[in-house]
């Protein structure tokens, strides 16, 4: 599409999210999809089975420790909007914990006559007697924030409160918070939000004072993605940190001195702007995303280094290397207990756990964790104990919750029930070869008696997001148990092999993502696992963009596509909602040099009348204020204009996840699987 054709795009009106004409178009397109896909016994069974998975009372109630209590947010059939509740560890370890309900969101929604969807609860330290509760209308990213008194189970009159916005707020002490929100026009003539729609200004707000009177302690540029502020309350190591995210992957980080006075001082922490860093006590841990020359030595991207933080601020660059990546192994995350550093790594997408003693970095054994499982740390209490809550899972093993101490015995305390017969299911790893010769790992999960047949290939490929083995409760029931083959592709753009697996696919390297995914699709056929006619692909958000590219560039490889909450119009993505924040990933369409490579794959601009496309189901949410629903709408409108058949469904609620509660999630899941069974195979 030329620039003139772009300027005369006839479907810009579909970007009016809640406009009467746009919503009339949505309803007109929902109707035939629902009539076609939902009126069958199989759809009703798929929906019922998915809802059973999501609503079962036997699933694990995951918790976070705050002081003496363990807190949990829970949804089920009786409480579709959810309960915020707490219990003690002693009670939690029993089969039937005694839950103390703090907030019933269903009851609150009825009282307020609002469509509340729970977002989060942030508690003050060290008393944990107040919480900043974040809820959105219909599941959007923009949220309303209100202060809650935990002891009295009541909202705090004249407490900290913010109207609907993409705000940030964090505790300093019981009577003081850092807050970033839409403060309106500023004295410098700029607004208080960035072009991405996130806070540009941080204020220090004291209880009992007007928000307008709160002093500004930090400000970024309008072109930044966002600014942030956090107070480290660790006893003896109290510090204030602020940061300017100049793009999605780069941040200028500072320590903020004397924020309570007019003598506020910001001290730049001189590390690479793309590095992930944490200050813990007087140690600073840094994981750069690109190679970094420090203290005369080049440290590879993905290395974990530790510095003496106070000495670092004075110019001392002496450090210790705690982890060095290799061609097969990457550091995914690290966390602390009172005595230890826990590192989780991936070796060819399989989890390995390393525990080091803080200070001397001596390795210690970590007994009790299962082999051949994806292990993650759910919660620790590093200020007080070595307590760790772990999660362990695999494609065929339901999640287990383990509890114990770092470096000590760990025991399983909760199980999620099995939702399909794992004894007749096998998970295997294969490697495909991409166009440039790179080996691309992928997992194949199937019934042992199924050697070939309808195959669903899932991918994402962006933002350094790793797709690791995890229990396939929904896919297991709806696809694998019915005779389908399920595949997960670990393509570039993710973080499975460390930062470089992602950075090589940024901007002009974006084509690698699509070549990798197409390479996996071809490999599945060459191995005899499926045919192109029986191969489908599915992805959402950035994965929805992936599906759009598969549609326009590789249509002959697939028998069907499921494209969910997608990015599609890459000429305008940076102008829609949070799109400007992703230019570090994709590039700037207003820069002719960058538009030159974006235009090569942007699905909306590459649709054609004379191509044969596979059947496609496109879904989105009206309330998605992250990826604009106009992307999905315009894709469908253009396909129809060119004479192609497309199925479309837009949930009026749901936010970026596409669903606001379990019932909506089950419906969305069943819709996709019913479409897939109709297009590439017949269920048993």
Care to describe what's here?
The protein has 684 residues and is of the alpha+beta class. Among the domains are: 3-52 and 419-680, 3-Layer(aba) Sandwich (Rossmann fold); 275-325, no CATH class; 328-416. Helix content is 21%, strand content 32%. The protein contains 15 helices and 39 strands. The protein has an 8-stranded mixed β-sheet, with helices on both faces. Strands 5, 6, 7, 8 and 9 form a 5-stranded antiparallel β-sheet that branches. The protein has a 4-stranded antiparallel β-sheet with strand order 1-2-3-4. Strand 29 and strand 30 (400-405) form a beta hairpin. Helix 3 packs antiparallel against helix 7 (473-480) and helix 3 (41-55) packs across helix 15. The longest helix is centred in the C-terminal third of the chain and has 19 residues, at 662-680. It is globular, with a radius of gyration of 25 Å. The model has no long low-confidence stretch (mean pLDDT 95).
Output the keywords.
single chain; alpha+beta; 5-stranded antiparallel beta sheet; 15 helices; 39 strands
What is the CATH homology-level superfamily of the domain at 3-52 and 419-680? Alpha/Beta hydrolase fold, catalytic domain
Count of helix runs: 15
CATH architecture title of the domain at 3-52 and 419-680: 3-Layer(aba) Sandwich
The portion of residues assigned to helices is 10-25%
Number of strands: 39
**Largest sheet, spatial ordering of strands:** 32-33-35-34-36-37-38-39
User: How large a portion of the residues is in β-strands, by DSSP E?
Assistant: 25-35%
Highest-level CATH class of the domain at 3-52 and 419-680: Alpha Beta
Radius of gyration: 25 Å
Distance between the termini: 44 Å
Unreliable stretches, pLDDT < 50, 5 or more residues? Answer: none
Average pLDDT figure: 95
Supply the helix-strand structural class. Answer: alpha+beta
CATH topology of the domain at 3-52 and 419-680: Rossmann fold
């Amino acid at each position: 599409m030329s620039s003139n054709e772009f300027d005369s795009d006839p479907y810009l009106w579909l970007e009016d999210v809640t406009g009467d004409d746009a919503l009339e178009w949505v309803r007109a397109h929902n109707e035939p999809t629902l009539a076609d896909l939902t009126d069958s016994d199989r759809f009703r069974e798929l929906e019922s089975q998915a809802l059973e998975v999501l609503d079962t009372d036997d699933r694990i109630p995951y918790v976070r420790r705050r002081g003496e209590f363990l807190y949990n947010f829970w949804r089920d059939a009786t409480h579709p909007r959810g309960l915020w509740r707490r219990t003690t560890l002693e009670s939690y370890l029993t089969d039937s914990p005694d839950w103390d309900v703090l907030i019933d969101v269903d009851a609150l929604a009825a009282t307020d006559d609002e469509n509340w969807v729970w977002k989060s609860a942030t508690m003050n330290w060290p008393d944990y007697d107040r919480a900043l509760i974040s809820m959105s209308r219909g599941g959007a990213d923009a949220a309303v924030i209100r202060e809650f008194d935990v002891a009295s189970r009541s909202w705090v009159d004249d407490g900290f409160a913010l109207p609907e916005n993409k705000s940030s707020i964090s505790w300093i002490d019981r009577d003081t918070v850092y807050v970033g929100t839409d403060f309106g026009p500023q004295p410098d003539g700029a607004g208080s939000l960035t072009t991405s729609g996130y806070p540009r200004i941080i204020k220090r707000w004291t209880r009992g004072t007007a928000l307008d009177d709160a002093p500004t302690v930090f400000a970024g540029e309008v072109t930044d993605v966002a600014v942030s502020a956090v107070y480290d309350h660790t006893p003896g190591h109290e510090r204030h940190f602020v940061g300017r995210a100049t793009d999605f992957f780069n941040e200028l980080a500072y320590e903020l001195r004397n924020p309570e006075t007019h003598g506020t001082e910001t001290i730049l922490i001189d590390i690479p702007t793309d590095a992930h860093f944490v200050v813990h006590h007087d140690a600073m841990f840094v994981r750069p995303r690109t190679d970094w020359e420090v203290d005369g030595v080049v440290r590879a991207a993905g290395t974990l280094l530790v510095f003496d933080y106070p000495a670092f601020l004075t110019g001392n660059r002496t450090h210790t290397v705690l982890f060095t990546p290799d061609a097969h192994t990457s550091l995914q995350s690290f966390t602390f207990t009172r005595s230890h550093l826990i590192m989780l790594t991936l070796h060819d997408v399989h989890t390995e756990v390393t525990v080091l003693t803080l200070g001397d970095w001596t390795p210690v054994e970590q007994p009790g964790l299962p082999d051949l499982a994806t292990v993650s740390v759910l919660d620790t209490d590093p200020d007080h104990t070595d307590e760790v809550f772990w999660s362990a899972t695999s494609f065929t093993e339901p999640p287990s919750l383990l509890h114990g101490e770092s470096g000590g015995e760990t025991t399983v305390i909760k199980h999620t029930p099995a939702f399909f017969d794992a004894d007749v299911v096998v998970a295997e790893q294969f490697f495909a070869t991409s166009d440039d010769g790179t080996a691309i790992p992928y997992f194949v999960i199937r019934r042992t008696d199924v050697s070939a047949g309808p195959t669903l290939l899932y991918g994402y490929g962006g933002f350094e997001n790793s797709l690791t083995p995890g229990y396939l409760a929904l896919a297991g029931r709806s696809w694998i148990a019915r005779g389908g083959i399920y595949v997960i592709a670990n393509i570039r753009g993710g973080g499975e092999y460390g930062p470089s697996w992602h950075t090589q696919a940024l901007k002009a390297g974006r084509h690698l993502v699509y070549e990798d995914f197409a390479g996996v699709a071809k490999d599945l056929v060459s191995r005899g696992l499926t045919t192109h006619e029986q191969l489908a692909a599915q992805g959402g958000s950035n994965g929805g963009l992936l599906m759009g590219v598969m549609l326009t560039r590789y249509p002959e490889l697939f028998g069907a596509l499921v494209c969910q909450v997608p990015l599609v119009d890459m000429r305008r993505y940076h102008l829609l909602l949070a799109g400007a924040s992703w230019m570090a990933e994709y590039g700037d369409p207003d820069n002719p040099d960058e538009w030159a490579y974006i235009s090569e794959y942007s699905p909306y601009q590459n649709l054609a009348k004379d191509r044969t496309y596979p059947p496609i189901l496109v879904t989105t949410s009206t309330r998605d204020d992250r990826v604009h629903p106009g992307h999905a709408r315009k894709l469908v409108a253009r396909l129809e204009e060119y004479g192609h058949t497309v199925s479309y469904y837009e949930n009026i609620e749901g936010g970026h996840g596409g669903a606001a509660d379990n019932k909506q999630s089950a419906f969305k899941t069943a819709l996709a699987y019913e479409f897939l069974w109709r297009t590439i195979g017949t269920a048993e």
